[in-house]
Amino acid sequence: MNENTINENPDLRNEEIKSDITEDPVTAEVNPDDDLPGDRFQVYFSEAVESEGPKLTDILNTFLELKNIDSELAEIDEEKGDLPEDIDIIKSKSEAIDSKLNSRKADLLSLEKEKSELLETDKSYEERINKYDEQKYDVRSNKEYDEIVKTIESLFEEVQKNESRIVVISAETEKISAEVSELESKYNELQSELKEKQALLDELNEEYKQEEIVLTGKRNELSNKLDEESKSLYERINKMHKGEATAIVRKGNCSGCYNSIPPQRVIEIKSAEKIYTCQSCGRILISEEFTAS
Ligand SMILES: [Zn+2]
To answer: Facing residues of 254 across strands?
Structure first.
């Protein structure tokens, strides 16, 4: 019967080859004589052709049942959908904040250390200044006096320089401390958001666990009814259109992509003697009448 289709509509056959799905294993399987045009009439009149009719109908039915299960599984995925991704995003954001926090805290520590060293230095300079101050009245020459005064002045300069640096450090410390506390509160916010989303995902995983087991079991059962080629055709399309591997032909349009289907092709799809895929979206096309029966 498939050979029949080919002989009557060589153009449509060519059209199908040009479709998104360039290699259709099911079509290849049911058209073993593609390369042997001389044998076609023989196959056309043979009984084997007749017996393939119900088999294809079974395959289309299985495709439909599989699609229903896959659309339920897709809904479950949708339900959890953003949560796993969101959780990953929050985790990586938290890590980034944590590493920034650590580096800012290290900056604070080193500034604190510098400040205490400067204070220590200033203290020793001040002690020396006091000592020189006392000494300057016991000098024996003007030269000695001048030298002492000069030393005191240079120590004063050092102390002043250190004090200005301490002012800068204090301002910097204040700025970084504010930044640290802002980062900390952001980090805590993310952690509580993470906790919330993780709990939600755990809950959904638990909630759908049974359903997923049942659906997956049914899916395997149906999948095992299909021959390898039909199975791989379906899986390939389901990978592209999760839970929507089949489309219904309604008023001459594909229900998956709404592209119109040539009237002759609509009739062929309705006869369900061959598996057709949509030229635009690649979904397996099933006649509306077929699904109602
Ligand atoms: Zn389509």
So the answer is: 249
The rounded Å distance from CA 49 to ligand 1 centre is 28
**Cα dist. 64→140, 243, 271, 280, 286 in Å?**
114, 10, 16, 20, 9
Can you state the percent helix, strand and coil of the chain, rounding each to 5? 80, 5, 15
Residue 69 in contact with residue 221, Cβ under 8 Å?
Answer: no
Instruction: Using the mean position of ligand 1's atoms as its centre, give its distance from the Cα of residue 118 in Å.
Output: 77
CA of 260 to the centre of ligand 1 (A): 8
CA gap 69, 246 in Å, rounded: 12
Q: Can you name the residues that pair with 63 across neighbouring β-strands?
A: none
Q: Are strands 284-287 and 246-250 parallel, antiparallel or unpaired?
A: parallel
DSSP result, 122-190: HHHHHHHHHHHHHHTTS-SSHHHHHHHHHHHHHHHHHHHHHHHHHHHHHHHHHHHHHHHHHHHHHHHHH
Q: Stretch 58-66: mean pLDDT, rounded? A: 94
- Residue 79 binned pLDDT confidence (cut-offs 50, 70, 90): confident
Cα 275–Cα 24–Cα 238 angle in degrees, nearest 5: 80
Which CATH number is 82-211 given?
1.10.287
CATH 1.10.287 region(s) of the chain?
82-211
pLDDT tens profile 189-200: 999 999 999 999
User: Quick check: 114 pLDDT over 70?
Assistant: yes
How do residues 249-292 score in pLDDT, each as one tens digit? 999 999 999 999 999 999 999 988 889 999 999 999 999 887 76
Q: How far apart are CA 71 and CA 67, in angstroms?
A: 6
Q: How far is the CA of 263 from the centre of ligand 1 (A)?
A: 15
Over residues 28-47, the pLDDT tens digits come to 344 444 443 333 333 333 33
Q: Which pLDDT does position 87 carry in this prediction?
A: 96
